[in-house]
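Exercise 7. Predict the joint structure of the components listed below.
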Amino acid sequence: MEDPTQNPTAPPPPAPDNRNTPAPSSPPPLRRPEYSLRYTLKGHDAGVSSVKFSPDGKWLASSSADKTIKIWDAETGQHEATLEGHMAGISDIDWSPDSRTIVSGSDDKTVRLWDTATAKLIRILRGHHNAVYSVSFSPRGTILATGSYDEALRLWDVRTGNCMKTLPAHSDPVSGVHFNRDGTMIVSCSHDGLIRIWDVATGQCLRTLVEEDHAPVTAVKFSPNGKYLLAGTLDSCVRLWDYHRGKCLKTYMGHENVKYSIFSDWLVTRGSYVVAGSEDSDIYLWDVQTKEVAQILIGHDNVVLGVSAHPTKDVIASCGLDKMVKIWIDDS
Amino acid sequence: MNLSLLDPFTLAHEFPDTLQAQLRSGHSTVIRFNRKGDLLASGRVDGTVVLFDVETNSLAKVLRGHIRQVQYLSWSSCGRYLISCAQDFKAIRWDLGKTGEGASRTVRFSAPVYCAELHPDNVNLFVSSLYEDVPHLVDISSPQTQKHALPTAPLRPASSATRAVSDSKQLTTCSIFTHNGHFILTGTNKGWLNLISTATLQILYSTRISNGCITYLRLSTTGRHLVTNSSDRIIRSVHLPSVLHTPSSDPPTLPADFTLTEENRFQDVVNRLLWNHVTFSGGLGDHITASTYHNHDIYIWERTSGVLSKILEGPKEEFGSLEWHPSRPMIAAVGLETGSIYIWGVVQPQRWSALAPDFGELEENLEYEEREDEFDIHPEEETKKRRRRQETEKVDVGKWDTDNKGFRLNVEMVVDSEGDEEEGALRVSRGERRRRRRERRKKWSKMGDGGCGGM
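Solution:
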């Protein structure tokens, strides 16, 4: 695989304007990331909507429009199991913190819990009135948050399968949900352009973030330390928000995202980067501080929908409309 | 982490005021929160111990071992171990990190066990007090259980023989460790408070703080204060000197002028109420809470001033065991008749300004003064570009937490609660969807087959 950073077709990073920005006092000592394609995992019969590494780093799960979830070995790329049962395509999956359970949200309006050891269905959670768009496990593994096309955010008790709360969260499909590190807050985002932060205990809205253009927000994620948010919007931007001040601190641009719900993730194993897929079938890595494109990963043949960064190693997984799951590794 | 976004005025709520939930699993007799406050252990009349998840109000685990009513529960500070004791002459130390064989350690005694409290640092050491028997310090670190009897006769200047005889008849009713674990505090049926060294098992200090039987001793979370309940209808708070709660590796020696003095008394002089159970508020322990005998009220006093802050009214039921959440304004109390656990909390009103970023909440009307450049027209692209250029702030996003600090209870997908759904009593969790559906089903079955209420 050629070094994509030297690819002439890659769009140039947004030129930093040196007139107004003070020159960085100390140049970052970190080298640029050098990810290269390691495995291409074939098996899904339709576009792959989401990939997630398990929190223990051993497994990779992928969900697809072909109604199945596949579990792969994160080290070898070996196919381990296929979870079947959904009646329609799956939009999002998430791992429980103990890496034993997967939750999936599907267009068949159900949320399902799967035992990964036996590849069996544990429970079906019914309640959403429309397709389920996004799912997230709480850090203790006791609560599930799901967002749906019915514009509501639901909280579920994992042990009993009861719906604990239904929050009338947004006025458009809820495209992303994520718990913060200690499980006290949930962030949700929607096509109505709002990002809302909720108190888990009371179900009340604590903060609303909105960008001037009200571009539909399609993915949102808390930073590892829980102080910031990463939000992807359909104006081809990924933004880093300081939710305490309600202020956008960084805008990452260069990729293309105007139609699909594309995930973005934090890449913090070496240095701090933001990684996101793009509709030009590439994967973009930005430096968190400088907002410059650090690397562009080329390999997919169609829109890249999902990306996931390995919790401890320099590994990225990606998936897209070309039905492929790809694993990228930085060996240097 | 959500604290920074919460309304500071609602955070200022020190004690709960609204009945929020009712938890039910069998007939509960005693409850206790763990140190983190995510689990509530409940001991039942039938000897089962169940753990409730505080966040979801659902059953997290069922521990079976006792066959009679559970009397006392104590958590280890790490939250992995729980000790329970019951009227069936047994104390069981549960390891919540294990299942099946080896998950519990049973210690048998010669009498019903009224109190068993784990050592704050050593999960293989606990102190127990028995019904009409001598208390013990029990070491379960080896397969052979080692029980060391603790003295009860208070330490006081030698005097008449009759006094010595009556002292020897005293019984220890309650025993707990101090916060650093080097001392044991015991209360006797004659109102004496004894301080015993954990290392030598000798009484170091005794004082008579009450004329009645001491029924309960409890430390605040910080270990700086002690509260006692006794049959003379007075609750006393005692300030503990730093030698009793400062952590140290070696057992400290008591200063020569060591005394334990009463800080405040709490009583109802009008109604002469007897108190069922007493506890500190979470955190610093600034409040003292008590449930009342033959009464439906829960009293909350301020500890330092002794002023009655609030009387919580709840369901028409007398309360037994009563616990305060370690960090939140939340009280859980057990109803004696129904055995349900009632939870009081604070209802926070929604802040409307949180729903839209450009809204602010005003106390009163303000004249709005527009800024000089407020309606100036700037080319949109220009402003956006300029704003992006100003995004130079350094951000630290941190790393993912991969090492699991502290103990986390395994989430059981199917909690074994067989035979617990008695006489139509449903566990009412925060989500009421399930319950409603069940009730509807019940109604149908009534219409169908004459109301057998198939729960």
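Discussion. Chain A has no helices and 28 strands.
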